[in-house]
Amino acid sequence: MRTSIWTRRVGVGIAATVMAGVLAPSPASAAVPPCKADWVCLYSDRNFAGNFATFSRATLVNRESPIVLGGGLANRVSSLRNTTDLDLCFTTEPVGGNVFRAGRHENWNQLPFWAEDDIEAIVKC
Ligand SMILES: [Ca+2]
């Protein structure tokens, strides 16, 4: 099982806290939150775990250009939840590439092998 980005980040945070002697958010607050209704939630690990990013339906619905993922999730998404009523397409390049489609209210605890760790952007289908 690979170590999640999130776990590594928490580990670094703890080390930095000890060295600097300052308060930092408790690691308990780093737990992956549930995906709210009308959001799209992307995760770096399978089964909705690891590093994550969320996008609201409001952000997506009027969007005409792809939302390009940041460094923490680009080419790292392994699972996702789509709690919106939108059909969404996830592309393996910032613009274009292969397209993985997640229909409205679909949850994917593991993306297909050709899409896992290769998604770079979200667009409305
Ligand atoms: Ca890619």
Defining key terms:
about 120 residues, alpha+beta, Gamma-B Crystallin, domain 1, 2 domains, four-stranded antiparallel sheet, 2 helices, 8 strands, binds calcium ion
Task: Give a description of the structure.
- By secondary structure, the protein is of the alpha+beta class.
- It has two domains: 1-31, no CATH class; 33-124, Crystallins (Gamma-B Crystallin, domain 1, Sandwich), CATH 2.60.20.
- 17% of the residues lie in helices and 28% in strands.
- The chain has helices spanning 5-20, 57-61, and strands spanning 39-45, 49-56, 67-68, 79-82, 88-91, 99-102, 107-108, 121-124.
- The strands form two sheets. A four-stranded antiparallel beta sheet has the order 2-1-4-7.
- A hairpin with a 3-residue loop joins strand 1 and strand 2.
- It is globular, with a radius of gyration of 16 Å.
- Calcium ion binds next to loops.
Q: What is the strand and helix layout of this fold?
A:
Elements lengths: L4 H16 L18 E7 L3 E8 H5 L5 E2 L10 E4 L5 E4 L7 E4 L4 E2 L12 E4 L1
Antiparallel strand pairs: 1-2, 1-4, 3-8, 4-7, 5-6, 5-8
The structure holds calcium ion (CA).
- CATH domain class of the largest domain: Mainly Beta
Q: How large is the radius of gyration?
A: 16 Å
| Mean model confidence by pLDDT | 83
Quick one: how many beta strands? 8
Per DSSP, what share of the residues sits in E-state strands of 2 or more residues?
25-35%
Helix content, binned percent = 10-25%
Query: Number of folding domains?
Result: 2
Q: From the coordinates shown, what is the CATH architecture of the largest domain?
A: Sandwich
In CATH, the topology of the largest domain is named Gamma-B Crystallin, domain 1
Largest sheet: 4 strands, antiparallel
pLDDT < 50 runs, ≥5 residues? 3-22, 24-29
